[in-house]
Amino acid sequence: MKHLLSTADLSKDDAILLLDTSAQMAATQSRENKKLPTLRGRTVVNLFFEDSTRTRLSFETAAKRLSADVINFSAKGSSVSKGESLKDTALTLHAMGADAVVVRHWASGAPQQLAHGGWLDAAVLNAGDGTHMHPTQALLDAFTMRRHLVGLRGGAGEGVGADLAGLKIAIVGDVLHSRVARANVRLLHTLGAQVTLVSPPTLLPVGVETWPCRTAYDLDATLADWQPDAVMMLRVQRERMSGGAGAFFPSTLEYTRYYGLDGRRLGLLPEHAIVMHPGPMNRGLEISAEAADSDRAVIVEQVANGVAVRMAALYLLLAHTEASTEAHTEGTSL
């Protein structure tokens, strides 16, 4: 694995290796000294063309905990704002000797172009491209589900090598503009889970019928009758809605009434079910404060798990070799 661009590129073995390695990374983070020397001397560039808080800080923390040198690049205030092309930015990073480039871009496909354009010799990690993909978000979501839910419906069981076979996951809301939804559908299918997308018809993309999942329009019926093990609420991305939110649903009040997760709908879920959200949340729109702050919610844990997952991705891309799958790091094998 030279790059991490899309969950559609991951085999089941690749995905489980990433999740197992994430579990090892997470175990090291409970120690007093959280830093590992694994990527000492390597340079990781965070190349962000879109605003980000959680993903950028998570990648930066992950790289630093692996002892890599980190360079944070923001399009604002850089030569990109003067019209510099992606190619010329890539050539600059190549000249600086970057070993890995973490890229978030407003254009779908930009990380693939960066990885395969022949402009730099570095591992490329997609931190979100347009409405296309967000692979590390899907991996941290799967990692969180595995910690809480594996074994409930006859899956492979907890621990190393576990998949998500038999689990039922509902992904609810603005699927049309969500790279998180696209990434999760592909990864969860690969890991054996069943996925239902619940959304108003106006917020489902063209061609969704070809995705490896089912679709539904009635959230109450899905929760009560299908009984999902996890409900993932998607942010309503009003900034991506040309013509404004009113072009996709009549009002925010109506959207919340039909597709918002609140205390009443929590009561429709199985007792073991968890509530997820990739963040940032629109409290009072797609999720109520009661649901977001409930004991079922694992939203803050998702953020913490993101560091371990991104440590695993950087490690497997930069330090892992076929000849030696173990790096001895202060008593911890990875």
Automatic annotation (TrEMBL):
Belongs to the aspartate/ornithine carbamoyltransferase superfamily. ATCase family. Transmembrane segments: none annotated. Carbamoyl phosphate binds at residues 54-55, 104, 134, 137, 279-280. Residues 2-146 form the Aspartate/ornithine carbamoyltransferase carbamoyl-P binding domain. SUPFAM superfamilies: Aspartate/ornithine carbamoyltransferase (SSF53671). Keywords: Pyrimidine biosynthesis, Transferase. L-aspartate binds at residues 82, 179, 235. Catalyzes the condensation of carbamoyl phosphate and aspartate to form carbamoyl aspartate and inorganic phosphate, the committed step in the de novo pyrimidine nucleotide biosynthesis pathway. InterPro entries: Asp/Orn_carbamoyltranf_P-bd, Asp/Orn_carbamoylTrfase, Asp/Orn_carbamoylTrfase_sf, Asp_carbamoyltransf, Asp_carbamoyltransf_Asp/Orn-bd. Heterododecamer (2C3:3R2) of six catalytic PyrB chains organized as two trimers (C3), and six regulatory PyrI chains organized as three dimers (R2). Residues 166-317 form the Aspartate/ornithine carbamoyltransferase Asp/Orn-binding domain. This is Aspartate carbamoyltransferase. The keyword Transferase applies. Its EC number is 2.1.3.2. Pathway: Pyrimidine metabolism; UMP biosynthesis via de novo pathway; (S)-dihydroorotate from bicarbonate: step 2/3. It is an enzyme of class 2 (transferase). The keyword Transferase applies. It catalyses: carbamoyl phosphate + L-aspartate = N-carbamoyl-L-aspartate + phosphate + H(+). Pfam families: OTCace, OTCace_N.
